Structures are given as structure tokens and as C-alpha cells.
Amino acid sequence: MAQISSDIREFVSAQRLGFLATVCPNGTPNLSPKGLTFVLDENHLAIGEVRSPQSVKNLRSNPAAEVNVVDVIARKGFRFKGSCTVHESGSEFERLLGFLRGQGAQSTIHSIIVLEVEFVETITSPAYDSEASETDVKMKWKDRQDQQHKDLESDA
Do residues 85 and 60 lie in contact, with contact meaning Cβ atoms separated by under 8 Å? Predict the structure, then answer.
């Protein structure tokens, strides 16, 4: 079992958005964004499932999964692989729901997915292969994000 460091915990907490990859019964991949992704403890992620019945169905037939959490501006993140359990009711669900609420989750949560992390790895963009600094990469991608969302600029 892999250990989730305090640095990784802080990173995941700052991002919150993770991408959960599961396997459909026919063997095809399913990728679903999860806005309620948190480090539960040094060996587990907890994900509040709000609107992902296909992910839950997939995990019931095959608990293997991967979660990627990435800072889209810094182009860095972490990959977590492991096996999931799904909690929809009962005392464990209530305990986990309390944890998610304590992290600020306010959405209606239908189930909670717990990933037992067997493997964790750093994800780094090829943008760093040219020896670009993190500041350079962030500036480039922040500018790109600003251009994509320029409709949000005020007229002031």
C-alpha cells in the first residue's frame, strides 16, 4: 500500500477536482470528473459521488480504478491507483459523509467511493522537458486560461 504524504494531501486539498477512471463491464474505459476528491488518510482517497451512476456500477463489477488530480496551470499532479469500495448507507457512509462535510462538501452525495491507494506517482507535463521553470509553465497556461475565459472580464 502506498503512503500519501502531507505534501500530496495539501495538493489534493487545493485542487479538489480529480478524474476517476473505471472499467465498464464490456471492458471499455470510463472517465468521470469528481469535484469532491479528498485524502481520507495516508492510504485512502474519499470521493463524494454526486451524479455518476455509471462509475458506481463499474466499481461494483470491477473495483480497480485510477484517480488523477492535476493542477491545470502548473501542469503537475498525482496519479493514484488502487481498489475501491462504494458506501451508500450505514455507519461507515455516515462517518465518511461527516468527513466530506468537514472538508466543505455541500452537494447532495449519493454514495462515497473510497480508493485504497496501492500506487501513487507524480504526473509532470512534457512542458518541463525543455527545462522550463514552473513559473514559466504557469504563466503560459494561465495566459491560455485567461484567453479562454475572457468573457468573465469586467467592463470596469
Answer: no
Distance (Å) of CA 98 to CA 60, 105, 108 = 23, 9, 13
Distance CA 24, CA 131 (A): 39
State the alpha helices, DSSP H only, in 25-72: 53-61
What is the Cα 13 distance to its own chain's centre? 10
Match 469532491 to its residue by C-alpha cell. 36
Which superfamily does CATH assign the domain made up of 6-124 to?
Answer: Electron Transport, Fmn-binding Protein; Chain A (2.30.110.10)
**Every domain of the chain and the residues it spans:** 6-124
Of the candidates 14, 45, 36, 9, the residue with the CA atom closest to the CA atom of residue 105: 36
Element (H, E) at 48: strand 44-49
pTM for the full predicted model: 0.89
pLDDT in the model for residue 155: 56
Mean pLDDT, 10 residues at a time, over the chain (156 residues)?
Answer: 94 96 96 96 96 95 98 95 98 97 93 98 91 88 88 71
